[in-house]
């Protein structure tokens, strides 16, 4: 009976590989002759000396992510005054919730903008400018100025 299971194969106790043995012999011979002086990668990295921990710590501090910039307080004040001056159909001033629904945003976003805690969102600021009619982007001297009409060609 001959088949694939005639002779069991034991993994790990096979014959020696000739390729690695020859490579090892050539390496040992080269070291004996003096052609190769250093072969270990571990020894090369440690030959530089100890790590400079103060320099590494300084690099870690410099790479720390910076918090995103917030909207200027003048933008929040200009938005709040423009919202209060804007009258609804009832003759009352516009609330934050009404302004948020007009620009398709959350009331929390309007509150954060007015308090100066929001991250600037140019799309939202552009929508708010059109609804309240006051400039909210650009140079600090122009914030709070009434918007001009569309540009004439």
Protein described:
The protein has 153 residues and is mostly helical. 47% of the residues lie in helices and 0% in strands. It contains 7 helices and no strands. It has helices spanning 18-33, 41-46, 53-62, 73-85, 96-102, 107-115, 122-132. Helix 5 crosses helix 6. It is elongated. Mean pLDDT is 79; it is low at 43-47.
Largest sheet: none
* Percent of residues in helices: 40-55%
Strand content: under 5%
Shape descriptor: elongated
| Total beta strand runs | 0
Kindly state the mean pLDDT as a whole number? 79
Q: How far apart are the termini? A: 98 Å
Rg calc: 37 Å
- Low-pLDDT segments, ≥5 res: 43-47
Order of helices and strands: HHHHHHH
Class by alpha and beta content: mainly alpha
If helices are DSSP runs of H or I spanning 4 or more residues, what is the number of helices?
A: 7
Describe the SSE topology.
Layout: H1 18-33, H2 41-46, H3 53-62, H4 73-85, H5 96-102, H6 107-115, H7 122-132
């Amino acid at each position: 009976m001959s088949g694939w299971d005639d002779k069991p194969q034991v993994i790990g106790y096979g014959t020696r590989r000739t390729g690695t043995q020859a490579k090892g012999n050539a390496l040992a011979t080269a070291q004996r002759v003096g052609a190769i002086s250093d072969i270990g990668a571990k020894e090369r990295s440690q030959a530089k000396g100890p790590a400079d921990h103060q320099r590494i710590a300084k690099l870690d501090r410099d790479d720390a992510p910076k918090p995103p910039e917030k909207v200027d307080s003048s933008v929040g004040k200009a938005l709040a005054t423009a919202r209060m001056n804007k009258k609804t159909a009832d003759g009352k001033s516009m609330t934050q919730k009404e302004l948020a629904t007009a620009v398709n945003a959350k009331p929390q976003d309007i509150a954060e903008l007015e308090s100066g805690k929001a991250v600037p969102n140019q799309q939202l600021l552009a929508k708010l400018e059109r609804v309240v009619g006051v400039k909210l982007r650009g140079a600090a001297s122009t914030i709070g100025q009434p918007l001009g009409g569309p540009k004439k060609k």
